[in-house]
## 1
Amino acid sequence: MEREQYLAAIKPRMPEKRYIHTVGVMETAINLAHKYGEDVKKAETAAILHDIAKYADIEWMENIVRDEKLDERLIGWGSELLHGPVGAYIVQSEFGITDEELLNAIRFHTTGRANMSRLEKIIFVADMIEPNRRFDGVDRLRKKAQKNLDKAMSACVRHTLAFLIDTKQPIYPLSIECYNDMMNREDSEG
């Protein structure tokens, strides 16, 4: 499938505002893929499809987690965390996409994880800094993304964790593993 077909497939599954966000993520991911030598088509496809399950029924998504033997820790975390792994499942089952790196970019775009690929980092960062995002610090994150993908990823993860802590929300274990991995890499680089 091509860009327009994927966009047409996701549009009815989300409100207009989320569709505009998705187009912004796509444009940002394409830019970052060019900048950092990643497969642009993969980045484009992962970005378009990353929120395909965002508005799916939570009970249905939890059943997918159980039926498909996805990470059981996802049960009870709500749409914010379920939509990544379930989105990867939908993309594989409905569109026949089997590229594991592309699926992982969708699967982990909200939580992150240790040892993320360049494509996964691009989708994670693009989701956070796309042009329609408005929050304190987003411009700083956008500047970092244009200079160094790993430093941008690290800053995005720290921003997310600080937000969760400040708002007294629980932190999913993969996000902690992602943070620890990023910090260990920064320490080893000096």
## 2
Amino acid sequence: MTQSTVELVIFDCDGVLVDSERICVKVDAAVMADLGCAFTEAEMIEHFVGSSIEVYTALIEERLGRRLEKGWQRQYDHLYRAALEDELTAVDGIAEVLDRLTTAFCVASNSGHSALRRSLELTDLLGRFENRIFSASDVPRGKPAPDLFQHAARSLGVPPERCVVVEDSAYGVQAARAAGMRAFGYCGGLTPAARLAGPGTVVFDDMRDLPGLLAG
């Protein structure tokens, strides 16, 4: 695949556009402590980063050995909102990359629309994505299922084989592969490079390298 054959770049949000994963893992630790659920930081990075709420909940229920009430996570939403309001920044170099891209791009995230828009607004990125924002709430299944990426491509009229996905989580890379799209795994955040590597995937650690990688 070369830049001339790429018609759409699909960006994940958390950990790719906004540097939120470090913040959220800290809040996750407080939530786990409140639930009485023991996860190490390494386990939270491996299992929580990039997961859908369904996957996240199932993992916690398995560790707790009991079911959680529907909507259980809402009681903790204020903790995430407050931390992000105080600390959230754009991923280093991403604004420069977006301004350099000549290919169409969009964002597709497991976050809900309101949280997604707020994160982009806090980091001055929202204007770059108007009318090209896709959430897992738009589809039956979030990542690691391919539904979200397929929905984004279909909505913008681009076949999957002409899309690339920029992700920072193993779940997201898995979803890209399942959607028939090439993945660019950004390992400049929390997820180790080895968890992103695999077929149809280019792993990189400096966001400013992305335009050159797309051209290659």
